[in-house]
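writing this on my phone so excuse typos. first protein, seq and then structure
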Amino acid sequence: MLARWFFEGAGRGRPPDAESAAAVSVALRDALTRARADWPNVAVEDEGYARHVGACVGDDPDPAGSLERLHLVDLYLACACLNRAPGAVATFDKLYRERVARGLRRLGPGSDLGEDVWQNLCTHLFVGSPDGGPRIATYRGRSPLKHFVVVCSQRLGLNDERAQRVRHRLADRLAREPPADERGPELGIIRQRYRAPFETALRDAVAELPARDRTLLHLRLVGHASTGRLAKMFRVSEATISRRLSGVRSDVWTAVTRRLTHELGLRTDEIASLTRALASQIDIAVSVVLAPDTREKLRR
């Protein structure tokens, strides 16, 4: 069955001959045995793995022989991460976090692996971006998975300069909007007075969100992914994504107002004024919070 699934995954239908089928079965069974010995807590079904390897081989003129050149055990973990098998991402974290940190340090000073950088990499690899699907799906096993992951992280690091320019524009917009003369001097005064505690409360509220919700906000507000694209990435309907986004925004704003009320002792009328002054900026402000390097610019 392994050979049949492999050749179907490669788009070739049935095995061309018994010898090829036997060679493929032996190679895949050996890889499955080694992978499961290395990572007993990561479960991938035989069929899913065989089809995944077949898709990686594709139209190679010697599909059976090509297996000798592939890193089949690494493809097991890649397949598990792509399909979100239990334990896969935790195993990936344990294996590659330190390797990625060393790879980023080679880019120069300031290229450290913070938690936000690691989460961005995991999102890039396992969820995808507005421009494409999960990057781990492009891993074909022709090199060790560790090399693939480090290269991906370094490319993200090198692309970060462009992302910083986008985030700086968001910071500028937050610093400028809404102008006091358009919304009244009272609201302008309130906005200036409570900007610092508002930023602190917002940062804390976003930090307390589940990682999945932070990823969703980041993709929507920083990555500018459409709800249709997000629906495909999270494998749900567009209506579900819209409801989830609305719910996350509501959770953030509720947490912010609760913190400001408790910590500043504001009266009801002051909270109402603060809400009018700041609520319309919540998406812009969250975008900046999700991009921490812009906060210093906001204080200038």
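second protein below, same order as before
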Amino acid sequence: MLIAFEGIDGAGKTTLVRQVAYLLCTKNVQVSIIAFPTKSRFGQLARSIINAGDNLDNLQKVCYLDFLHMQPKLMGDQLVLLDRYIWSNIVYNSSTDFFDYDELKLPDLTVYIDEDVDIAFSRSKIDRLTADISKQKERQSTYELLTKQIESDKLLFIDRKQANKGELITNTIHSKILEQRPSY
């Protein structure tokens, strides 16, 4: 089962991925965590493009290659939690023309974390892509559009503005995983 955690920088994706993984491990479920960009040569190139702030047009292509590179690890039967995936590449890049989704394993479940932009902005690591709060607001709007284009049983919308209790959110995500794969 493949679960992607998506949301703007500072929304709490990494924290939730770790909390859900911990909860599943306490229930003897084997879990893998993959954060994009990865530590592969493509992921390292993507990080250097982000940090340098130049060649942003190439960022989407490099991230796509990173996704392709990771596909064998995503094809098994194990539970994989993804800290960012396809949506982030769409949101943080201007064009989606390069993507051929047929080559990528799509998530069984996307957990979208909707956080107040001002709160997320105050928590996020500032780099070339996140330094402008107005851009973060635009990105959140794009994420929200993506949530409307996915089947409801493949989406878990977490409204951090309403439910900011970490344990409650973690248990909600765990329940949704069990709903889709009772063996977990």
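The CA atoms of residues 50 and 128 lie 7 Å apart. thats all i got for now
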